[in-house]
Amino acid sequence: MADKLVIVVGAGASAEFKLPIGSQLADQVSDSANTIQIYGEAHKQNIDPHLFSAAKLIGSESGDADFIEELRRISSGVRLMPSIDNYLHAHSHNEVRVKLGKLLIADALIKAERRSSLYFNPPKTHETFNFANVADTWLAALFRAIVTAGKIEQLESWLERITFVSFNYDRVIFRFFFLAVQAVFDLSEEEASKFCEKHLKVLHPYGSLGRLQPRNRESGFGENNHHQALLSSVNNIKVFTEGGERQTRQLVRQAILEAGSIWFLGFSFLDLNMKFLKPADQTYLKVFGTLRGMSDFNSRIARKELASWIRNGSAYEPGFDLVRTDCSILLNDFSGFFRSN
Predict the structure, then answer these.
(1) Same-domain pairing of 49 and 189
(2) Taking a C-beta distance cutoff of 8 angstroms, is the pair 6, 255 a contact?
């Protein structure tokens, strides 16, 4: 049987679609929190009404919590931490602050989806997405690599072998494939949705912003039309202080044990996330990945940890194909892997 693959996706991969990495997300969260605490109830016309209503509701549900003061503290403190998740971890005892932080994350990422190169909400149903906008992204590179014969059966076969593990809350992977199979194979929206539901395996260790509607227009990608939609997203995501879903962790680890190769795209190899991924038993794996922005010291730590997953890993570690490059370039440079497998 052909080898299976696990593709681990971090913020650096979604950045190719113009979504924020950790430090940028923290800045956006801080700015949004600061805007609300500056204007407050008296000048709420200057604030996103859905965000303000959702924040106020979170505060009211907690009884005597001053949600404006909590937002002020988030705005002030989050820029001094490695990420918004780290900041909320430091305040995991404060349920209101964690909920407000998750609300700000969801709001920032939904707005980022709307600004992204993958956003598509056509005014007319016959309009099609312009894939020139995403031609230089990792998903476009992957799609080209696994559909060389131009047949949908080839894509089905590859997707049966691939498990995506996305540490991002965004819905980029599903949205891309939903649009791509329509464009390439002349599928209807309904057919594209059924194809993705059947063949795409995307596991989100910390949840996602929520399911998308199976249509091109008003899909939910980059859309926030009511404060209840924001609150729903809050309930769908977890920050790492809350831990990942146990069932998802088991599925991820089993997928790694069954895989012949693992690919790390835009992933920062944080210790907590590496522990989430680490399989219970050592296995045989080819390792590919990007190290863009990582120091030599941190790269060595990542390599050593990965070697511990693999039988005779210390001897194999020099053969890891971990490269300081973009995700799309990595997949283009190793496209021969997909032709030979």
Answers:
(1) no
(2) yes
3-state SS of 202-262?
A: EECCCECCCCCCCCCCCCCCCCCCCHHHHHHHHHHECCHHHCCCHHHHHHHHHHHHHEEEE
Contact 195, 186 (CB under 8 A): no
> Any residues with CB less than 8 A from the CB of 319 and at least 6 apart, and which?
none
Q: What is the mean pLDDT of residues 183-204?
A: 96
Same domain, 198 and 159: yes
Q: Are 322 and 291 in contact (CB under 8 A)?
A: yes
pLDDT band at 42 (very low <50, low <70, confident <90, very high): very low
- Domain of 292 in residue numbering reads as 1-19+124-207+244-341
The CATH number assigned to the domain holding 188 equals 3.40.50.1220
Express each pLDDT in 216-245 by its tens digit: 999 999 988 788 889 999 999 988 767 667
Same domain, 44 and 188: no
Distance, C-alpha 200 to centroid of its chain? 15
Total domains in the fold of the chain: 2
> pLDDT per residue over 281-301, tens digit each?
999 899 999 999 999 999 999
Phi, psi for 294 (deg, rounded to 5): -95, 140
Q: Which two tokens stand for residue 319?
A: 């053969």
Q: Are 327 and 265 in contact (CB under 8 A)?
A: yes
Verdict on whether the full-model pTM lies above 0.85 = yes
CA angle, 177 then 181 then 186, to 5°: 160
Tell how strand 202-203 and strand 259-265 pair up: unpaired
